[in-house]
Design a protein that fits this description.
The complex is a heterodimer of chains A (about 190) and B (about 80).
Chain A: H1 5-33, H2 38-81, H3 99-110, H4 117-132, H5 137-164
Chain B: H1 5-21, H2 24-33, H3 38-74
Helix pairs in contact in B: 1-3, 2-3
Classes of the chains: A mainly alpha (about 190), B mainly alpha (about 80).
């Protein structure tokens, strides 16, 4: 589900020219046969459909650009944000709480929501530790990658849902969009 | 409210060019987004609409000639 920028440019150029030509054809036919003639109506319909596709392609091109920028920001932010927070609770010598309690404790200590990716990742690690009695670097990397993938997928779905169905998010209606260039806080 | 055959031929040619130039649009969108995507389907509808227009223009070419011939016969 990806359209390269070059394809967008080609589509927009082709459709823009087609719209102009269809409009000229509709005008020529309307002038000679009358605007209510079947041929004039067909030409107008074709012109409108070209216009609709052009508008949707332009919107998709804008969304695609936003997503590319957003993903780049997210990737960068994920890399930097993982640095400062140290999961101090993961200490084998301490008695380890289990399940959601682990997550809630860690989230509270780190000042994060329990659904933030980091407490959930820590919970994944501790769960793995309980199940297998140890955690290798490879397992930790895989769990982190899964959290990262989940985060990116949830983010894209949430943004699409909000844009498509803003009325389902009345609590966000009064909020302004983040200023240009501001990274997304996660 | 009349159109001569030369004008009609010119309009038909221009409409056929339009149809040819936009033929790749549905294919590109279908390949990139899948047949079920709304944009790919909108592009298919667009192309279908252009094809209907061209088909009617080509048909009108024949009937228009008949109408002109009948008119001349009646005068």
């Amino acid at each position: 589900m990806y359209i390269p920028e070059a394809d967008f440019e080609q589509l927009i150029r082709t459709l823009s020219e087609a719209r102009s030509r269809a409009t000229e054809l509709a005008a020529s036919i309307g002038a000679r046969l009358g605007t209510e003639h079947q041929l004039a109506e067909l030409a107008n319909t074709a012109s409108l459909k070209i216009e609709n596709v052009l508008r949707e392609v332009r919107a998709s091109a804008t969304d695609s650009s936003d997503i590319a920028t957003g993903l780049a920001e997210l990737q960068g932010a994920l890399q930097t944000e993982t640095q400062p927070v140290t999961p101090a609770i993961v200490n084998p010598s301490e008695r380890m709480p289990i399940g959601t309690e682990t997550m809630a404790n860690f989230a509270a200590q780190a000042g994060l929501e329990t659904e933030h990716w980091l407490p959930m990742f820590v919970n994944d690690l501790t769960s793995q530790l309980r199940i297998s009695g140890g955690v290798t670097f490879e397992v930790a990397e895989r769990l982190l990658q899964q959290r990262k993938d989940d985060f990116l997928r949830d983010f894209l779905i949430s943004r699409r849902m909000y844009r498509t169905y803003p009325h389902l998010f009345p609590e966000l209606q009064g909020h302004m969009r983040p200023p240009e260039g501001q990274t997304i806080s996660h | 409210m009349i159109i001569d055959s030369r004008e009609l031929n010119d309009l038909t040619r221009r409409a056929t060019d339009l149809m040819s130039e936009t033929a790749d649009v549905p294919r590109i969108l279908r390949n990139r987004l899948g047949e079920e995507h709304q944009l790919a389907q909108a592009a298919e509808e667009m192309q279908g609409s252009i094809e209907s227009f061209v088909r009617e223009l080509r048909c009108f070419d024949v009937s228009a000639q008949t109408v002109v011939a009948d008119t001349f016969e009646g005068t």
